[in-house]
Amino acid sequence: MKLNHTHDPAARSWVASANGHADFPIQNLPYAMFGKKGEYLHWRAGVAIGDQVLDLTALHGQQLLSGLEAAALEVAAGPSQKVLGLNAFMASGPQTWTALRHALFALLSADAPAATQAAVQACLVPQADAVYRLPVNLHNYTDFYTSIHHARNVGRIARPDADPLTPNFQWLPIAYHGRASSVVISGTPFHRPMGQALPPGAKAPVYGPCARLDFELEMGIYIGQGNDLGQPVPLERAEDQIFGMCLLNDWSARDHQFWEMAPLGPFLGKNFCTSVSPWIVTLEALAPFRVPAVERPAPEPQPLPYLDSEHNRTLGGLDVQLAVGIESAQHRAQGLAASEISRTSFRHQYWTVAQMVTQHTVGGCNLQSGDLLGTGTISGPTPDQSGAI
Ligand code: MN
Predict the structure, then answer these.
(1) Which of 88, 173, 193, 263 has the highest CB neighbour count under 10 A?
(2) How far is the CA of 224 from the centre of ligand 1 (A)?
(3) Kind and range of the H or E element at 140?
(4) Of the listed 60, 102, 150, 360, which one is catalytic?
(5) CB-based contacts of 83: which residues, under 8 Å, 6+ apart?
(6) DSSP per position, 71-112
(7) pTM above 0.90?
(8) Alpha carbon of 30 to ligand 1 centroid (Å)
């Protein structure tokens, strides 16, 4: 993904709140499915700009675009979204995604003609008035395990007598197939899970409420067009399969998880709830944040040829800054901001997003448009960079 004029840090929008906005400047333009508070089930696609949401259905009605740009908006905001969310737009592929990004950038640019600004202004909804749903109709969710620092931390707790790293970790991005039905939009409440746990030193498990609830700081990857059954996605085409990325919290009941997961992997310890952010940042918007993949000095194993390329080594990583805060009932009662307990970057992840897509499909598994891949807990090298308790 090459840099282009939509990444120019000097670009400004006529939407004043976008200029200097920490999350939603004109260079970002992430997608969500949103509605207005108090409205009944009228979900539509939107793009964040400053403290506003650009309503793509309303914009579609303004008929400001032509050619490929109009076709791209039709896919994102036309009738199919009512049933499919953003799935149809994700299935339309990188050319269409780029066409719409560049069209929206022009419409929102400070250079846009006054008549254009007035027409687009009528399509803005304050984020303060917006509510969100899952951006896609989610059929499949897979969670990877790609932070070597997290894997070592977990290994020391779960298998104190063994090598903290399992022998496969440095050879392939490992994962388990998760539960799509319990993936929810951020802020959705969930019940404290019941289940079995084996208390320390006990001979038999006890049944009860989770006593060791944990979070997992992750990013999520939304799949674009998908691949046919039996047609693996080679590494050089893997990034074309990624529509964009979100934030993801893989809630984990550690006491249940550690008792149940040998030998088949996570089950009830993970399937009660997974939260995702409403906003999806496109891979194109992340282009300025590309960095080299994690170095693997000898004698560390090097990736096998199907998981290795010059592009992946030099630009496969993403320097996305991430932080975790805990906001308790006491914080809220006292009017305090969340307490930050961790701060790290996605650049420390041992395997890249492209390697995850290729590994998922190398055996012939078909990814489908709108599928969600969790990256696995994102922990950096030091304890204050841990993405889980
Ligand atoms: Mn996880």
Answers:
(1) 173
(2) 22
(3) none
(4) 150
(5) 137
(6) HHHHHHHSTTHHHHBTHHHHHT-HHHHHHHHHHHHHHHBTTS
(7) yes
(8) 24
Which residues sit opposite 136 in a β-bridge? 85
CA 232-233-234 angle, to 5 degrees, is 110
Question: How many Å lie between the centroid of ligand 1 and the Cα of residue 108?
Answer: 37
Packing angle, helices 94-108 and 67-77, rounded to 10: 100
Distance between CA atoms of residues 138 and 125, nearest Å: 26
Contact by Cβ (8 Å): 136, 225: no
What's the gap in Å between 377 CA and the centre of ligand 1? 5
| Residue 241 CB partners (closer than 8 Å, separation 6+) | 223, 224, 225, 226, 227, 233, 357, 367
The distance between the two most distant Cα atoms of the chain, rounded to a whole number of Å, is: 74
Q: Is 331 in the active site? A: no
Q: How far is the CA of 75 from the centre of ligand 1 (A)?
A: 32
Strand partners, 223: 242
DSSP H or E run through 343:
strand 339-345
At which residue do the structure tokens 């600004």 appear? 117
Task: Determine the distance separating the centroid of ligand 1 and the alpha carbon of 119, expressed in angstroms.
Answer: 43
Helix or strand or coil: residue 171? coil
**What CA–CA distance (Å, rounded) separates 158 from 152?**
10
Residues 6+ apart with CB under 8 A from 92: 72, 75, 225
- For residues 280 and 190, the answer to whether their CB atoms sit within 8 Å is no
pLDDT in tens, 69-89: 999 999 999 877 766 789 999
Q: Count the residues in the chain.
A: 389
Rounded to whole angstroms, the Cα distance separating 350 from 379 reads 10
User: What is the pLDDT confidence band of residue 30, given thresholds at 50, 70 and 90?
Assistant: very high
